[in-house]
Amino acid sequence: MFRAFDWQDLIPLAKGAWLTIQLCAMSGILGIIFGLILGIARTSPSRIARWISTIYISCVRGIPILVIIFFIFFGIPLLFPGLELDKFASAVIALTCFAAAYVAEIVRGSIEAVPRGQSEAADALGLNYWAKLRYVVMPQARKIMVPPGVGFIIGLVKDSSLVTVTGLVELTHAGNIVTNLTGDPIMTFLTVAAMYFVICYSISLLGRLYEKRTGIQVDPLKLPEPASV
Amino acid sequence: MALYFGDLLPFSSLLLEGLWTALYITLVAMVAGSALGVFLYLGKVGPGKAVSIFCSCYIEAIRNTPLLVQLYLIYFALPALGINLEPIWAAVIGLTLNNAAYTAEIYRAGFESVPHGLREAGKALGMKNAQIVRYIVLLPATRNVFPALTNQLILLFLASSIGSIISLPELTNAIMSVSNTTYRTIEVLAVGGLLYLGVSALLSLASKRAETTLFRWAVGARV
């Protein structure tokens, strides 16, 4: 009935791993862009911008990513009946929504970690808000963001395994398919776990390399603070 | 399309039971996992070289692989070895083993962030290692560890939703089954999302309150 797990089964798993990497790269980049906007809004002088971003960040961080994935995958076709999204697109949207909130918290934390005197000095020089952000605060905040950012990307790779519920054949789903073919869940999922390990561990090694070259302390284990409401 | 929440009313007890299951496995996994984490941390920093390498490998392996794959290994791979687990036990064991690795790292970070000068001062006073840990390092380390542990509790509660994929009838599973019965997908996802949000907000508020009460002595003097 079943055949043994052999090297041929590595091919669908490797394809799944490649899809996982593409998924994380796209949602990671989009998440960083939206997260930067949200994080800056979260610390901006405009009260409305602060409120909107605070509500968004708190909501997303208080709901499991699995529920967000279900909401995007099943909810968007119901809310916008004309809109047709393929599985990959809805997975990217779900992971981006999720990533943006967590990146925004990292950005907020880093902006607040820049000593207040820096921003006061910029005020004293007569710089306006955007110039202050562009030339004084962000260059310093950028360095503080890197270590938790590395930890966040590793978290994104791990959380991307949950889009398996939409039927998108990423690494975990490929593992399911290979298990059904071979009837050998032990070897299959140990291989899947090893592939995730290689992806995540390479990211944390890259983070450490960056630390060595720039002198920034990178602790990829650091997680963002909990949702505060 | 019009939203209508009335169809969900007959299923409110199903949703609440799901929430209860989610809370239950979260609490069990938090207590068991943070206890196991103590041993992992002690094993990692302890004198035994083999034990230390084993604990480090365990921590790295857990922290660099998805919880879902760990649950699959427990729920689908263990039966191949002759060990059959109910979904709830698979979820509890999976979350506990996962949580242990994260809490071990929290303890490590908490103890490492206590300034080295405190230990040296203890040594200069002629204290033994055990005395230094008990009377000098333990209290500030606890203060450092506490917020990270409550953060971990909230993350664990949200992670318990992954149990639905191995057909554990917790909140996310209840949400999806109500959605399949009533076709009120958006409504039930909104209600379920609000339940998750409410509980994690409560947990967050409670832990802030506990932190200020427990560590009033350390206000403004973070060590």
UniProtKB/TrEMBL annotation, chain A:
List, in alphabetical order, the GO biological process terms annotated in this UniProt record: amino acid transport
Listed A to Z, the keywords are:
Amino-acid transport, Cell membrane, Membrane, Transmembrane, Transmembrane helix, Transport
Regions crossing the membrane: 20-41, 53-76, 88-107, 144-166, 186-207
A GO term, aspect molecular function: transmembrane transporter activity
State its location(s): Cell membrane
Spell out the Pfam families in the cross-references.
BPD_transp_1 (PF00528)
Q: Does the keyword Ribosomal protein apply?
A: no
The record's PROSITE patterns line, in alphabetical order, gives: ABC_TM1 (PS50928)
GO CC terms on record?
A: ATP-binding cassette (ABC) transporter complex
Q: How is the protein disposed in the membrane?
A: Multi-pass membrane protein
- The yes or no answer to whether the keyword Transmembrane helix is present is yes
This protein's name: Amino acid ABC transporter permease
Q: Origin organism of this chain?
A: Pseudarthrobacter sulfonivorans
